[in-house]
Design goal:
Length: about 325
């Protein structure tokens, strides 16, 4: 019999709620306020595009939500399907269903794509820590695997395989089958799984690997930080096709981009514009087309914002913040 829903891995757990809800979020980087009271709601089944000039705070938002310690939340709230995520470490945020596709993915020589993804998937099936006593031994040292404190309220998590069979983690055979299916869905050769993570990858291959991880981990809300940056038009189209193939009622997407070109392929339900650490305009896909034609200056004029007033400008762009 399958264990109770509360113990099923995030990839298979069904949930209801309001999605990702951010209210009045303020974030500092190196003592400087970058986000200045930001509100945003992304529900499962929706695709939101987040646009804005360099240095407006787009990457700051997604990194802060994922728990990057460089980005310090000073006030405001962020919840995923009703659960506060700001007091959770990054791995716990992943377990409740949050995912971040990086703008500059790291290279991991010696670790194959298949092993990397399976390790990530298995980690999602581990029980979530509930308190400091669950993380530390009686002497104050961090517990290692196999030393978890026995807790009757914290039952082992399960991975639900075919036929509703609950397992402690995904079986190798089943994992490989699932990986092949996702590689085929994303039109990627099976040899991709044997390569080392991002080692010698082109820009397009790195971004496709981020999408492959998203496909395998099946988050509730996926944040993609500039998946089109540094790509030629053909690579943008291929990455976009991958994102589109994963669209559905169980996953919401927050796609960060400077340019409208990726939105020619990934049609958003909503478009938001950030300037000076604030959300200044929201609308439908037509807003992105207007920005492509007129740039951001018309918004600055309408809102009375001077370019020099932006909290991140010049060399301090979203590549760093």
């Amino acid at each position: 019999m399958v264990q109770s829903e509360v113990n099923v891995a995030v990839a298979d757990k069904k949930s209801v709620g309001e999605g990702l809800v951010v209210k009045d979020l303020h974030v500092n980087v190196e003592g400087r306020e970058i986000l200045k009271g930001l509100d945003l709601t992304v529900r499962q089944g929706e695709v939101h595009a987040l646009m804005g000039p360099n240095g407006s705070g787009k990457s700051t938002l997604v990194n802060a939500l994922m728990g990057n310690p460089t980005y310090v939340v000073t006030s405001g709230t962020a919840a995923l399907n009703g659960e506060n995520i700001l007091n959770l470490p990054p791995d716990e945020r992943a377990k409740v269903g949050l995912f971040l596709g990086f703008q500059y993915p790291s290279v991991i020589p010696g670790v194959s794509v298949a092993n990397f993804i399976r390790t990530a998937l298995v980690s999602l099936t581990k029980p979530r820590a509930r308190s400091e006593s669950d993380l530390l031994t009686e002497t104050g040292e961090v517990r290692v695997d196999g030393q978890s404190k026995e807790n009757t309220d914290l039952k082992p998590t399960s991975y639900v395989g075919r036929g509703g069979v609950a397992r402690s983690n995904p079986a190798i055979k089943e994992f490989r089958k699932n990986l092949r299916e996702k590689l085929a869905l994303l039109k990627m050769d099976e040899s991709f799984a044997t390569r080392y993570v991002n080692d010698g990858f082109s820009g397009g291959e790195k971004k496709r690997l981020e999408v492959l991880q998203m496909a395998m981990l099946k988050p509730k809300i996926a944040m993609l930080d500039e998946p089109d940056s540094g790509l030629d038009i053909d690579a943008v189209r291929i990455v976009s096709e991958g994102v589109n193939s994963l669209r559905g009622p169980d996953m919401g997407v927050l796609l960060v981009t400077h340019y409208q070109r990726i939105l020619n392929y990934v049609k958003p339900d909503y478009v938001h514009v950030m300037i000076n650490g604030k959300m200044v305009r929201s609308g439908g896909p037509e807003l992105a087309q207007e920005l492509e034609q007129q740039g951001y200056d018309w918004l600055r004029t309408d809102l009375g914002i001077e370019a020099d007033d932006e909290s991140e400008r010049g060399s301090n762009d979203d590549d760093n913040f």
